[in-house]
Design a protein that fits this description.
Layout lengths: L4 H16 L21 H5 L8 E5 L2 E10 L2 H12 L3 H18 L5 E4 L4 H7 L3 H13 L7 E3 L11 H8 L3 E3 L9 E9 L3 H12 L4 E9 L3
Parallel strand pairs: 2-7, 3-6, 6-7
Antiparallel strand pairs: 1-2, 4-5
Helix pairs in contact: 3-4, 4-6
The chain binds zinc ion.
Protein name: ComF family protein
Family: Belongs to the ComF/GntX family.
Length: 226
Amino acid sequence: MGHGFVENLSFLWDCILELIYCGDEKCILCKSDLYNDRYICKSCKNNIKICKDSFKIGKGCHQFKCYSSSYYSGSMMELIIKLKYKSSFRSGNVIASYMKDTIHSNDISFDVLTYVPMTKKSFKKRGYNQSEYLAKTLGKYFRKPVVSCLTKIKDTKDQIGLNEKERWNNIEGSFKVFDNHFINDKSVLLVDDVITTGATVFYCSLELLKSGAKKVDILTGAKSRV
Ligand SMILES: [Zn+2]
C-alpha cells in the first residue's frame, strides 16, 4: 500500500459524500441538520473549550513555546478520536480550522511545518498519520511547505500506568531527524493532534533544533493535561 493511500482514498470518499449530500448536510458529530455551519453544528461547536494561552514545554536548558487550540474534552475529543481511529478526514478539517485560528490569533510565524511521526509499523496499521494530515491541511491554508524530516525509531511502550518521569524516559531517544535539508536555519512549526505530558513534542523539537532548525514552536489541536 503506497504512502498516504488510505488518506487519499478517504479524502476522495469525503469529497464524493459532500457532492451527494450537498445542501442536506448533517453535523458529523451529532447528525443534526447543519444550516450555515460546515461539518459541525452550533451546539457541538459550543462544546469546544478554546485554549487561549500559550505555554512552555521544557527540560534542562531547552524550552519550547507550545500552542494548543482547545482542551481535550467534549467535541474536540470526539473529533480527534474520529480522525485518529475512524479515518474521518472531515473531522481533521474541523480540527485544522481551529489550529488555523490559533496561528492567526497568536500571530505565529514559521517557515515550514512538520509533524510528529509514527513508527513504520503503526503507520502501516493505520494507513495514515493524523498529525501529518493536520500539518498538510495547515500547509495548504498558509501556503507553507510541509517537511517530512522526523522518524520514530523506537516503538514506545504504552504510557498508561507510567508516572510523569517514566513517561519522559519512555519517549527519550524515540525520534531522529533523517533529513535536515529543509529545516536548516528555518523557523519550524511542529504539529501534533494532542499534547499530554509534552514529552513527545519536546524530544521531537529537541531533535529539530539539534539538526539545525533556527527555532521550533509547537502547535497541537488539543491539550490533555499540561
Ligand atoms: Zn452537532
